[in-house]
From TrEMBL:
Membrane topology: Single-pass type I membrane protein
Locations listed in the record: Membrane
Keyword DNA damage: no
Catalytic activities: L-threonyl-[protein] + ATP = O-phospho-L-threonyl-[protein] + ADP + H(+); L-seryl-[protein] + ATP = O-phospho-L-seryl-[protein] + ADP + H(+)
This protein's name: non-specific serine/threonine protein kinase
Pfam families in UniProt: LRR_1, Malectin
The EC number(s) this enzyme carries: 2.7.11.1
Origin species: Vernicia fordii
Residue segments, region Disordered: 107-129
UniProt keyword list: ATP-binding, Glycoprotein, Kinase, Nucleotide-binding, Phosphoprotein, Receptor, Serine/threonine-protein kinase, Signal, Transferase
Single GO term (MF): ATP binding
Keyword ATP-binding: yes
Top-level taxon: Eukaryota
GO cellular component, one term: membrane
């Protein structure tokens, strides 16, 4: 192992294992051990691997503090149970989201971390933390449900599609919360292409898409992309996911032969495994949709897209990871479910004012459905 310069392992199913006490990998430059169920601390000896440039230990069960990995250019530790402070004077690109990192007061206020001047490297990404769902639920919902639907135009501007208004989703940061806190997204990982940057999180294909404008844009994320829907009323919902492969499309750069394969989880349940948009749609730039029924209780709706390292990684432009064009969330049965959701939100302690407010929300949502609008338009034309 002492002469090994690259090791990539991902998506292992096992009862859990820890790092060895010693590891002779002093020539390693690129180490990826992602989603392998590794437990225990990150060993201190990794900091002594002087040639190591890229370290990805994301989506494991690592605990304890982060060693001082100041010589490593990129460090991905998202999705673990690490705690403690960020080592001082870190000058690398570090993703620490979905951990329990202790932030100093100045970091919480948006100032550089550490006890001294920050080097010129980027600030570590620490949002969201492992408690984000509970914190956001309390912050935005305050114990009350507000919405019966959710529509997001992933990677594109605000638009109307099939009678529904889709929110814009054009931010290039790794973490974003919509105005008012109706939804949020989180992105983690790093593209394999050295030339890729945050602008590649948004993709736009203005020609060649065979369907309506909703599918000309998409949000792309290197490893893990999670959308959260907050303050939905309790009940069953239909989640409709819109896909179109608008990146691996060109014959001249051989990207049309590239394979994008990822998994989809809704409310923690795996709905799609090894999903390939082009195979399902039959062609690049062609729309493909999938619908799933899921249940929402007092916690947010969570839709998670995850790249487990499968598919093409050497085809240019090497923009690996999950891609989605739009998300719609509606009651699972257009008409009957609105009443069911209304009744589910009524408790014995509900006041008459709260009941009337809920009923008005149901009526408003019912009248906004595209099927009802079409029926009204048909009758008016008679």
């Amino acid at each position: 192992m002492s002469k090994l310069d690259m090791l990539w392992v991902s998506d292992l199913r096992n009862p859990g294992f820890s790092f060895p006490e010693h590891a002779n990998m002093t020539n390693i430059e690129n180490l990826i051990l992602r989603n392998c169920n590794i437990i225990g601390p990150v060993p201190e000896y990794i900091a002594n691997w002087i040639w190591l440039e890229y370290l990805d230990l994301s989506f494991n069960n690592l605990t304890g503090r982060i060693p001082n990995l100041k010589n490593v250019s990129e460090v991905l530790l998202t999705g673990n149970m690490l705690d403690g402070p960020i080592p001082p004077l870190i000058d690398n690109d570090m993703d620490l989201s979905y951990n329990n990192i202790l932030l100093p007061k100045d970091a919480k206020e948006g100032k550089p971390h550490g006890s001294g001047p920050k080097p010129h490297g980027p600030e570590p990404n620490t949002k969201p933390n492992r408690n984000y769902i509970l914190e956001a639920r309390d912050k935005y919902c305050q114990g009350k449900s507000k919405y019966y639907s959710l529509f997001i135009n992933c990677g594109g501007g605000q638009t109307s599609f099939e009678g529904n208004q889709y929110d814009e989703d054009i931010n290039e940061t790794k973490f974003y919360e919509s105005p008012g806190g109706k939804w949020a997204y989180s992105c983690s990982g790093d593209f394999l292409s050295a030339s890729a940057d945050s602008s590649d999180y948004l993709k736009n294909m203005t020609c060649g898409v065979s369907e309506q404008s909703l599918h000309e844009t998409a949000r792309l994320c290197p490893t893990s992309l999670t959308y959260y829907g907050f303050c939905l009323h309790k009940g069953n919902y239909t989640v409709k996911l819109h896909f179109a492969e608008i990146v691996y499309t060109k014959d001249e750069d051989y990207s049309s032969s590239g394979k994008r394969i990822f998994d989809v989880y809704i409310q923690g349940e795996k709905k799609l495994e090894n999903f390939n948009i082009k195979d399902e749609a039959g062609w690049p730039n062609k729309l493909h949709t999938r619908e799933f029924v899921t249940h929402v209780d007092e916690n947010p709706l969570v839709i998670h897209f995850f790249w487990a390292g499968k598919g093409s990684i050497y085809n240019t432009p090497q923009l690996n990871g999950p891609l989605v064009s739009a998300i719609s969330v509606t009651p699972s049965k257009k008409y009957g479910t609105y009443l069911n959701l209304f009744l589910a939100d009524i408790s014995p302690s509900s006041s008459s004012g709260e009941i009337i407010s809920l009923l008005l929300s149901v009526i408003k949502c019912y009248f906004q459905t595209s099927q009802f609008q079409k029926a009204i338009n048909y009758l008016l034309q008679k």
